[in-house]
Amino acid sequence: MGERIIETWIQAKHPNQELCEDGLYTGSNYYAVIDGVTSKGSLVWPGEKTGGRFAKDVLLEALETLPADMNAKGAVSYLNDALREASFQAAENPEVLERVREERPQAVLIVYSRMRREVWCFGDCQCMIGGRLYRKTTVMDELTAGARSAYNQLELAAGKTLEELAEHDMGREYIMPLLVGECQFANGDGEYSYDVLDGFPIHEEHTQVYPVRPGEEVVLASDGYPELFGNLAESESVIREVKETDPMCMYRFKGPKGIAPGFHSFDDRTYLRFILEEN
């Protein structure tokens, strides 16, 4: 009995694939999709990387050394510690990370343990197991997406064009203080809190654990897919629909940002599909 990878895909939103803040990992002990959080701060990390890219790269390396027999909470804690160590070593002034939350490299991830045959989700990645969708969203994402949509629709009503909003997203500008401020809710306990790896204390117990049975197909994906299906073609078709019908992500596909001119999508996206074979 073992896993067989059926299809994978990783695509940056940016025309330059090297700027992708998503990561895909298929190792001897784990499979994983990592989603580096879009940076809200101003720090530039070694290699001219954003905080999201830096976090993604650190976690890809840490997965290589993650012990095969780890449980879900232990693995998430191990990876968060690796991110803390790397961030403090790379930062010119580590004290800034203590004070200014938006400067911390951040990421969420979803991991499959080949030894335990479990999927572990920390943060707002998504998966399908045996055709059943598991997806977690945050209250702040819904609020900021709705506020941006409303603001941009007000701009349209006042005479702006979609083309003008694509060049200068007034709604995104309007919600930016919320996007920066929401970092104060990271790994908290309140209504607006959310889980993210950032190298500081987290709630390991919030890790979602899903068992995988022999014969089941599994899809691991980042939230770059607004609708997730059991195969790549159908999931990608939704991205094409967004581009054709709602590229500013203001209507059916409300989001905190739209598709910038010349970009592939509104966010990086990663897709991994495999099966746990019975024989």
Mean pLDDT: 96
**Which strand-content bin applies to the residues?**
15-25%
Count of alpha/pi helices: 7
Query: What is the element string, with H for helices and E for strands?
Result: EEEHHHEEEEHHHEEHE
The counted number of beta strands is 10
Low-confidence region ranges: none
Helix % is 25-40%
Cα end-to-end separation: 5 Å
Strand order of the largest sheet: 1-10-9-6-7
Largest β-sheet summary? 5 strands, antiparallel
Radius of gyration: 19 Å
Q: Could you name the key traits of this structure?
A:
279 residues, 10 strands, five-stranded antiparallel beta sheet, alpha+beta, PPM-type-like_dom_sf, PPM-type phosphatase domain-containing protein
Give your account of this protein's structure.
The protein is built from 7 helices and 10 strands. It is 32% helix and 22% strand. The model has no long low-confidence stretch (mean pLDDT 96). The strands form 2 sheets. A 5-stranded antiparallel beta sheet has the order 1-10-9-6-7, with no helix packed on it. It has a 5-stranded antiparallel beta sheet with strand order 2-3-4-5-8, with helices on one face. A hairpin with a 4-residue loop joins β4 (107-113) and β5 (118-122). The chain is of the alpha+beta class and 279 residues long.
Topology:
Layout: E1 2-11, E2 22-26, E3 30-36, H1 51-65, H2 72-90, H3 95-99, E4 107-113, E5 118-122, E6 126-129, E7 132-135, H4 139-157, H5 162-167, H6 170-181, E8 208-211, E9 217-221, H7 232-245, E10 269-277
Antiparallel strand pairs: 1-10, 2-3, 3-4, 4-5, 5-8, 6-7, 6-9, 9-10
Helix pairs in contact: 1-2, 4-6
InterPro entries: PPM-type-like_dom_sf
Protein name: PPM-type phosphatase domain-containing protein
